[in-house]
Every structure is written in C-alpha cells, then in structure tokens.
Write a structure and sequence with these properties.
This protein has 255 residues and is mainly alpha-helical. The protein has a domain of 95 residues. Helices cover 68% and strands 0% of the residues. It contains 13 helices and no strands. The longest helix has 20 residues. It is elongated.
Amino acid sequence: MKWLEDTHPRESEKFSDIADKLEPVLTRGLPSTKDAQRSADLLAHIGWAYFLRLRNGAFGLDPVVSYSKAGSVYPHNPFAQAMWGHWILWNHGKLMDASQHFSSALASGRKRNFVHRWQLAALFNCPDEICAEEILRVANDIRNEHGTIGEDAKVRIFDLYYDRTFSSNPASNHFLNAIPPASHVTTFRWLFDGLPFGDSKSDLRTGYLAALQEAAGQRDDALANYRALRARLPKNRGSLSDAVDLGIKRLSSAH
C-alpha cells in the first residue's frame, strides 16, 4: 500500500508497471484478513492501482467500484474516500462532490496527512478558480492542525499567487480573502518564510505578503514591505513594480 501511495516510476518505467506488480498482492491479501478496516484499506489501494493502470491506457477498470466496496466494508475509510475525491476532480467533476468525500475521509480521524496530500493533489489538477481558493483553505486547515505540507506542494501553492494577487484593491480580491485575511497572513508565512527563494521570487514573496497584510488591515507592516520593495525594484518594470507604487500611494494617503 505504501509503495502504491509513493509511486515514482524509474526511467522507461510506467505507473502501470508498478501497479501490475502490486495489485495481485493486495488482492491475495483480502481473504486472509478478518479486520474490516484493513480490508477497506486493501480495497481502496486496489482501486488506486486501477487508477494508475488507467493513466497508462488500460481499459475496463473502474476505481470507484473498489472505493465503494471499501466504504461499505468500513465507512469513512480515509484511503477510499480521499482517492474517490481525487478521482472526481481528475475527471473534471464538481468540487462540491469531491469535497464530500474528503470530508468523509477526515471524519475517520485516521491518516489526516495522507488525506490532505491527496486533496491538494486533486485540487492542483482542477483548473477552476474556486479550486485555487480551496487550496488556501486546505493549507490553512493543515496549519491549524499542526500538519505538514511538502516543499513541492508549497512551491505549487506559491505559484498560484502570481496572477491573482495584485488587483487594484487587495481587499476586494476573492483569492486573497478565501480565508480570513489575518489567517491568510499567518498561513502565507507558515508556508513560505522558510523556502530558499532566489532574489526574484523573494521579491514576489515580499509583494504578496504586503498585499495580504494590506487586505488584513495591517497597514504599517504592508507599507513597510512595499517601501522595502520600492528601494529594490526598478521603476516602471512590470506588475510587481506597479503594485508597489499603488500600494504605497494607497497606504500613504491613509496615514
């Protein structure tokens, strides 16, 4: 099961090559366990093996059959429900439908880091703007639960800010306000303060933080960050430079 969860094909190897080897092991394990929870775990991972095989062109497999069986054996199974939610968004289904499965997975009280990892992976594959906002909500929940997010996922979350942060008025930006503004500042710093960015991304990080602080009413902190960027950036050089000038103008006139 762990191998299927962390599948990393080597060169010339496909996801299905690994799934083809592991699925029979899971299937053989089903009759030998009398524990309902363990049976549901195995069924969920058999469904995931189907998904990996489908990714490489297999036909006639339906992961939902296994996920559903797992749920009937042991309701709220975290693996089955998280994988089911992932499947829905993979197939461009509704976020509301997927969220019900992720909520069911979290209700189990088991494997919360696993569930959040699959939830984020599913949301990253969703092109809808509401999914970008949901990613922030999930990250905020993980922080509040003292969970962890991998560095690769953090970088993907950071990239969401690029086209969504510098509007004419940060307070009216739906993305910035997907979670309470003060919490967004805290979550942003929790996610990105420790990442080893180069100068360009460090400047973006400071600009994003300033916009978040402004939206949260933390005017002095926001103005200080805008001014620090103004001292570093050439004038009239793109959206970040323009946002810095507008931010300084807005916050200076409010003092």
